[in-house]
Amino acid sequence: MIAIKDISQARHLPFLRSLLLFLSFILLIPLFGCGDDTSVASITIYPAATVVVGINKTQQFQAVGYTATGKSISITPVWNCSPAIGSIDNSGLLTAVGVSATGVVVASAGGISASNAVSVTDKATLSGVVRNSQGEAVANVIIDLGANNTLSNSSGVYSFTNLTAGPVTATSRANATYLSGSVTATLVSGETKQKDFTLPDRFSVIGESFNPTSNTDGTISMNISGSVVNNGTTTATGISVMYLFSDSTGQPVGVVTASVGTLASGATGYFNATGYPPLSDAYTSYTRTVGAQTY
């Protein structure tokens, strides 16, 4: 009888194993989810970070919901903002007050909220890039705007902040290489106006001629001739022209320097010089710089 009972129980083992597997799957569903990834776990407001808005201006905000797994989902949030900065409608459009203020905008959906800082300002910013006539960025150029001045950085970028809205004119100071230039702009509160400088060359080079000659030691001599024109309104002294040759990696491989001397305003001076740049046969580009000691 015992043997028969054991056999009967053994017949039920496959069913019991299947039942246990099914119950285990049911219990694991709450832990790993069942594909219904639609609940809002967090909200991000765009534009992100602190937003600067001009007085009496508008700013459109948007909100995106995210699930616990990071999936983005569409939401219809309720918008609110600090009364000090203005009012915001159901679409997320903020209308700023007419005075400088700080506060937050808030978006809420599904019991989740997010906020972004807002600064309302009556000030504006003017910035840009200083370039030469070849489109290259120029560093260390002094830019004046009223009683303020700034210096272009290594990328040619300049910037004035905390400016009063309205028309302005910024002027670059002349130096040994470039003449003075200017830009004008009408600034709007809370906005950055981009205005780039293209600096006029103090000197122009005309009739340029390059004449390489092979040497017995395997190097190449480079003879360069041409004329320099003084575009400035004053006499310039100690004028020189420098050619820097570089290879494909940007490494210098040779230099040629020529002296021009003194030129009155509008005058032209001839130059002719020969240099011995090592490995000059490998050069792929060159830069030319014309400068003066006084101007």
- Kindly report the spatial arrangement of strands forming the biggest sheet: 2-10-9-6
Domains, number: 3
CATH structural fold name of the largest domain: Immunoglobulin-like
In helices, the fraction of residues equals 10-25%
- CATH class term of the largest domain: Mainly Beta
Order of helices and strands: HHEEEEEEEEEEEEEEEEEEEEEEEE
| Low-confidence segments | 1-8, 28-35
Number of helices: 2
Rounded mean pLDDT is: 88
Q: Superfamily at the CATH H level of the largest domain? A: Immunoglobulins
Looking at the overall shape, the CATH architecture of the largest domain is Sandwich
Strand content: over 45%
Report, as a whole number of angstroms, the end-to-end distance. 122 Å
Structural Rg:
36 Å
Secondary structure: elements and pairs:
Blueprint: H1 2-11, H2 13-32, E1 42-46, E2 51-54, E3 58-60, E4 62-66, E5 72-73, E6 78-81, E7 86-88, E8 93-96, E9 101-109, E10 112-121, E11 123-131, E12 142-145, E13 148-151, E14 157-164, E15 166-172, E16 181-187, E17 192-194, E18 197-198, E19 203-214, E20 220-230, E21 236-246, E22 252-263, E23 268-275, E24 285-291
Parallel strand pairs: 2-10, 11-17, 11-18
Antiparallel strand pairs: 1-4, 3-8, 4-5, 6-9, 7-8, 9-10, 11-14, 12-13, 12-15, 15-16, 19-20, 20-23, 21-22, 21-24
